[in-house]
Every structure is written in structure tokens, then in C-alpha cells.
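new request in #modeling-help
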Amino acid sequence: AQKITQTQPGMFVQEKEAVTLDCTYDTSDPSYGLFWYKQPSSGEMIFLIYQGSYDQQNATEGRYSLNFQKARKSANLVISASQLGDSAMYFCAMRGSNYKLTFGKGTLLTVNP
Amino acid sequence: DTAVSQTPKYLVTQMGNDKSIKCEQNLGHDTMYWYKQDSKKFLKIMFSYNNKELIINETVPNRFSPKSPDKAHLNLHINSLELGDSAVYFCASSQGFTLAGEKYGIGETQYFGPGTRLLVL
């Protein structure tokens, strides 16, 4: 069975600073994919970044990077130079051999001016 | 030119009614999904169709029935609505995969629709 754990229900960060959102996962699958999604207050789900379990390098997409530590089963999202528009709910998700996307409970990020 | 669209955006109805939510994607994807997001924001897969074939069917009451008339559309019909059905329902789509593949599909990105906020009174 797959499990995603996001231990931070809420996080605060000052505008222009970097922030790390934690995500740990549990799976027995040899290959899997890890995803981060953003859900602003308007409600839509926005794909941010993807990391494959066999990828040698950490994924980056603009101000988003994924700090993937396979041995520790962690896939933390790093947002650099936070902006007010980054305030949202962030979900970590994993897809393994059952092809189902399993989500964590989310972290609510608030960016302060 | 919305990639994944859902109608209606809001749905308020009485207990016991039957309602449908429609989803359409114009991305040319083969696979579509329905998710339920509860009041605590927890997202859970309900169904998935690959090219009109049901491939994921989670433990969902049989009052919920998905229908895929073609691979660009996946509708969700709910019979005899209950208070606990109140939630946000998201449709999503991805490129597509075959169950025979081992790694194929694991890295597929799912693109979500805007959600349908269902309130059962």
C-alpha cells in the first residue's frame, strides 16, 4: 500500500524567502512517481513538479525544486523567493504500480508581506 | 480553450435527488479520472477510465456511476444523494497507459478540472 505523509498542516514564510514543504512516502514498489500540486483558495488543482524514482537529478521547475532523498523516502518541495501568490494548499502525491495517485493531507502555506 | 472542464461548477440539491456532473478534456488524453475532495481537503480517487474502459474502481457506493461516452468525456452520475456526498468533485485526465506496462504511466501528470462543489441539503 502507498502512503504519503505531510506533517506540516500549516507553514508561514516571509515574502522573498525560501520555504520547504515536507513530504515523506511509503511504498514497496521499485518504481514510482512523486508529484506536487498547488490548490489556491479559488479551488483548482495546479500541477507543479514531478520526480521519478529512477531520476538521478532532483527536479526543478522555475522557482520550484524537489529535494528527493530516496533512502529517506522523502520528496520535499522547495519554493524559492516566495511570492504572495504562492499562498495556497500544497499536496504531495505518489503514483506506483497500481497507477493510482495517492495524495497527502496537504500543507497550507501562507506568505506574509 | 480550457483543457479539462467540468459542469456545473456549483450544485446545490436536496437529499434523495439524482444529479450528474459532466467532464470534458480537449488534451487528446486517453485516461480520465474522478476524485472526491472532502471537507478536510483530502483527495481520493474514485474512478478511472482508459479509452472508455473502466480501469480503477475504488470502494465507492454503487449510487455513483461513471459513464464515458468517448475518451474525451467522463461523466459522474449520483443517485439518491446523501448529506455525506457533499464535497468537491474533480475530474482529471492524463496521457494514458496500458495496464500491461510496468513503468509506463507512473510518471504521467494528471491535469485537473476546476472542480464541482456539491452541497446536499
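bot summary: Chain B is about 0% helix and 50% strand.
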